[in-house]
Write the structure tokens for this entry.
Amino acid sequence: MRLEQRRGLHAGYVPVGADSKACIHCHSEHNGEDFAVIHWDQRAFQHATTGFNLEGKHAALDCTQCHNTQRIVAAERSLLKNPAHSFLGLSRTCTSCHEDKHKGQLGANCLQCHGEQTWKPRFDHAKTRYPLTGDHLQVRCESCHTPGPDGAIRYTGLRFDRCSACHSDPHKAAFAQQTCESCHSTGGWKQTSFVARFDHGKTGFPLLGKHLQVGCQSCHRAADFKTPIAHDTCASCHKPDPHGGQFVARAGGAACEGCHTVEGFKPAKFALAEHDRTGFPLRAAHATVACAKCHAPAGKATRFKVKFGQCLDCHADAHRAQFAAAPLLNRCEQCHDERSFHLTRFTLVRHDQGRFPLTGAHRAVACMECHKPRGKLEVAAYHFDSLNCTTCHEDPHKGQFAARMLRIAADGKAAGCEACHSTKAWNDLVRFDHGSTKFALAGAHRAVACESCHRPPNLERKLLAVDFRAAPSQCEECHADPHGAQFAGAGRVTRCAECHTAMKWRPSLIDHEKFAFSLKGAHENVACKRCHVLRREIEGEQVLFYKPTPVRCDVCHGNGAVAGGS
């Protein structure tokens, strides 16, 4: 029968009109009961030769998942001698293997919607009597195709002649004389043609500003357009009060329109002029501060009634409680005002009334030079444990005058640096008395510059690194010996003070009577240079020669005398 109908595997191998001899190409017999009639490899079998090509999900199935006695069609079963050993008798219809989920509602041709690659349908709803448009395209199939009385999903017999077949009437029959599509479309429930036609200005509440953007149902809740809506005040719709009753006691009550308009809740029309009528008028820099700086945005919890009795109610204490005690008590306005925090009213006069009056060069020093962070304090310091110079100034003398600085001054306090210096200038040393040292300045020494004796190291030009205690105290330690050691004593040291004084180099204090040549008589009036005229080179220097000086009369007096006649 299959050969006559030209279907199945045999129809592809046996020509039309062939006799039974054609079978022996594949089958053999008379080889015993247990001999396999056919020899074939199921894994290499080309199923397409049967006329039913395995594609998609079918290609991965095992043979026995389809070729089993349960799937053999009843009409074919009677033709098979041994159905359990046969690959014949299967139907090519989908429902012979797969359950018809649609219960026959869509016919037996599953392939018109489904394919062998996936069960998901390639159904085109546009080809039905109800093409899907607008928002209907986004609706899930099961939202409309619900189970029927028999529990099967309904794909036919659904009503779609009017919207109410699926949608309930949100207007509660208020528009019973009109169809839904007279106002609405599948493009969206909220996009109605009714809005374009309806003039809200003819009602008791014309829509202006932001109200034009409000959806109808925001006011007409549950789509009830018949019941009147209270609209005498903003609070009729806008509840609860977003400010939590902060403005109830305000002049004019809590009417929203006192600060806001229908053009938008923000910005408010509460400007400087309105703020000046509050308990805190905005002046100078405060007038440029954004509202949110004081009234920190917190949604409905935003506070507009804030503390403002003291500056510290809003501002952090920039001085870290340095002025918390009396007399200032953290009253910022005693030094600052609204113009600028850095422009203070703390003048030189007020500074002079404090513990540290500014005198001399201190009056020209910038505030931050002294008032800067110190120790653990991270802000400028205004209180000091000690007002000594060394609190701000480093001791350039490295403690050389510590004992002098500890001496008590006229005010009963340690003199400190002011034992020698003044605030007029660092090099103003009028308070220093050299006479109080081991080397009092007398005579010509008073005119000598400090650095001539207190010499800076490393060719420096200032006295900052000088060791004042190392200054010489003997003449010969500063002055070179102009006599070439003619008067040197032990250790070849010339004791200048034996002949000279600090008043000036000449005249000397030398007593000629202590030497071998007395100046008695006329010699007392002879100038030194009349006898001491010889110069000789001593150690590379030309010096006036004193030893030995001629003592015989004929050397100075007479013909060829060195000093001329007497």
